[in-house]
Amino acid sequence: MDTIFTRGPSLNNRLTLALVLSVLLIFVDHKLEGFKSTRVYLNSLMSPIQYLANLPGLILSESAQRLTSKEQLLAENQTMSNQLLLMSEKLQQFDVVVKENEQLRSLLQAPRRQESRKMVAELMAVDKNPYSQQVVINKGAIDGVYLSQPVIDDSGIVGQVMEVGSTNSRVLLVADVTHAIPVRSLRNDIRFIATGSGSLNELYVEHVPHSVDIQEGDLLISSGLGSIFPEGYPVARVTQVVRDESRPFARVIVTPTASLDRLRHLLLLWHEDDDDGGTSDEIDSDIEPEDNVVEELEDA
Amino acid sequence: MRKRNVIIWGSIIIALVLQIVPLPIQADVYRPDWVLVVLAYWSMALPNRVNVGVAFITGVAMDILVGTTLGIHSLGLSVSIYILAANYQRLRNYSVWQQAIIIGLLSSLYHLLTFWVQHLLTDIYFQVDYLWPVAASMVLWPWVFWLLRKTRRQFSIM
User: Fold this and answer.
1) Interface test with A, best of B52, B77, B157 (most A CBs within 10 A)
2) What are the pLDDT digits (tens) for A73-101?
3) Domain around A50
4) Burial (0-12, 13-18, 19+ Cβ within 10 Å), A123
5) Does B19 lie at the interface with A, CB-CB under 8 angstroms?
6) Considering Cα of A138, then A143, then A145, then A151, what sign does the dihedral take?
7) Which of B64, B81, B115, B128 to mutate to test the interface with A (most CBs of A within 10 A)?
8) Which pTM value belongs to this model?
9) Are residues A147 and A214 in the same domain?
10) Given an 8 Å threshold on Cβ–Cβ distance, is A130 in contact with B66?
11) Does B72 sit within 8 Å of A131, measured CB to CB?
């Protein structure tokens, strides 16, 4: 019923109010980052809708699981056990190598690497916003997920946690335009920074001089600098190097090793220094500057 | 009163769910603007009940769901719905196909607005792919119009 008493402010006033509020929200959220703590509650408030949206996919995969035939299961079992055999063969050698590495590190008086805590998370939803590459996972503050926690899958680094809700959280993928990750080449330890391009299967390595030794097929692994991502996980493989002398830097395009377009199960990593109060971190920071100097000398 | 609110907000929540339902990557580009289309229907049918305020609240909810900076979608939706609510008397008299064209224009305005704001905040670049939802929304409009009008008449919501 439209009576004169129920009308409230005019449409123009409403629009002005909405515009002012929107701009205020954008300013506070983007420039001042004023919603960092409230975002947890806001995300929790909205998580029922997310769970609802996840339902059709869940039902589909569940029913697909129930409908798989016995032959398919047997075949899958066969390939899995073959894989397990191969893996455990590798693991036997790995144990020896880890021991050896520990001994060598203790000889060098370098800090030992420690096993870090891990947790498997499942993908809940892929973001539909075309301007950013994010996914939502089904673990949140209740499970101990924290801001900028590294996330990997079975073949490489996927991204980092950018927002935490109470039961789910949002992961910024390495391919997002606002994301950059410090890496080094596995072949010759040269350090780079790989930034996202906005498309899922491309990253750019920026500020690479023409003289630097980087080739197609080189594997880039995380360098551990920046202390967000742990060291030594594969990030990307070089697919294209364009050395156009008329440009100041070489154009290097790399492909992420993690299959970002078909993520399903993800692994959350906890920082190593969570258990022992950050002592290893201090030792790291003592040693790193010297390392850097040596590397830079070698580069030059 | 209660029934009306339940129906309106129920349809908006369903639209929000459809907006974020995971789709295969090939189909994802063509996802229509469910939220905009549903809000457009209500603001054209009941301009005194659903207008800029509801659009603003829905926009904030969408920002949280989609993970953009708060305020981006609320700005885009408020402006688009304002244009509709200000001209509802004229738009109601158009045929559904003419309305679909108007929805297409509004949807492209909405996409360009959200793109511009995000372009100011982060350095993203425009791809023509971003405008596929406009075509999808135009195709969607007659069906949503028909469905929601049926629901509205069924429950005699004014």
Assistant:
1) B52
2) 899 899 999 999 999 888 888 888 888 88
3) 15-67
4) buried
5) yes
6) negative
7) B64
8) 0.71
9) yes
10) no
11) no
